[in-house]
Amino acid sequence: MEPPRAATRASREELEELLQAIRRELLARAELPSGEWVEDSASDLRAGAKAGLYLPGGGGLAFYSRRGGAAYGHVHATEGAGADERAGTLAEALLDGLPSEIDAIDLGFTGLAPAEEQTVAARLARRAGSTVIERRAMERELSTADGERLSETAGAARLVPIRSVTLEALVDLDWRAFHGTVDGLVIGSGIDEYRRVLVSMLEGRVGRFLDEASVALVETEPPRLVGAILTTEQTPRRAVFVDLLVDPDRRRKGLGRYLLKWGIRALWAYGYERVRLWVTVANRPALALYESAGFRTVASAIIYRWDRPPSPSQPHSVR
């Protein structure tokens, strides 16, 4: 296998073919690249505006984008024998070439079978500063029974349209709900990343945003946002719960279950046939909630995160 080369040396046709393969897999996961993602990414990679490496002959592609001291990237290996070896080689070359001002990077993978993805993750996990985040896609079929009146309640909170809540209130709730957890690592390390992700959802960059199946829970005395569910459309028949938030001080009161059941009922009323969501394996309470609500695992994926280890302290002088 030839060593990875800078993506600036690849032809536009090579890059677009690899990016189209990535896009197809992301679409299947309900992770929808927005706009002219393939064309824009190919241009950025060829111009060096986005750092990337590729394997000659269409064997694979790895790249990342920077936001401050963090980077968010992807590794794709063309399916076939040795895909895990190609993905591992690309990922290691990308990590080895990170500039010193990047403190952390998240990498996703496509083109790999689950066992191959595990092999690559184990290979990369040998590096100091590594975290392997396992995620599951869970899906549920909607039925007539989902249109029945909810037996769950929201206690003292009331439902309000999602757009009646300020973006900053949603960002604050998202931050408090997930910061410091494995789920928070998926979003990003800073509150600005939480804001960026929420804006992407609300503006429909990860699928058409469904206001009719998205709602917030607010307590009135004193006013306080205590929960929310955000939903997008993957296809005219399948929707995706992209965010389910509950105030950490209001957990174990049934609010998460209420929001989940409310979202399912709303989707059934608007004619959707299935709903999907993603959850980290480490989030055991969320997994139990979704399984009890009838969701079943249909796919899995790994995010590899690397945080730059702190510099070793200078040794004390000996007198």
Written description of the protein model:
The chain is α+β, with helices and mostly antiparallel strands and 319 residues long. The protein folds into 2 domains: 123 residues, Aminopeptidase; 161 residues, Gcn5-related N-acetyltransferase (GNAT) (Aminopeptidase, 3-Layer(aba) Sandwich). The protein is built from 9 helices and 13 strands. The protein starts with a strand and ends in a 12-residue tail after the last strand. The C terminus is likely disordered.
Please outline what is shown here:
This protein is α+β, with helices and mostly antiparallel strands. The chain contains nine helices and 13 strands.
- Radius of gyration using CA atoms only: 21 Å
Query: How many distinct beta strands?
Result: 13
Helical residue percent? 25-40%
> How much is the average pLDDT?
91
Low-confidence segments, given as residue ranges, are 314-319
What portion of residues belong to β-strands? 25-35%
Global geometry: globular
Order of helices and strands: EHHEEEHEHEEHHHEEEEHEHE
CATH topology of the largest domain: Aminopeptidase
CATH hierarchy class name of the largest domain: Alpha Beta
- Continuous helix count: 9
| Count of distinct structural domains | 2
Q: What class would the helix/strand composition place it in?
A: alpha+beta
CATH architecture of the largest domain: 3-Layer(aba) Sandwich
How far apart, in Å, are the first and last alpha carbons?
54 Å
